What does this fold into?
Amino acid sequence: MEKTLRVIVEKCPQNHPCPSVRVCPVGALSQVDFQAPTVDHGKCIRCGKCSNFCPKKALVLE
It folds into this structure.
């Protein structure tokens, strides 16, 4: 079974630029203003870099 990246909006403070957006090697994460990031599942390679980098653990690879 293939893993999927999920954003847990309740854990994301949504008051700053998401630091995990910058570490995605394929540009699969995007953010509008300070909202929780969104995932382009077509681009996501499920490497886990963003979920490991997220300080609030709001990005989960499951």
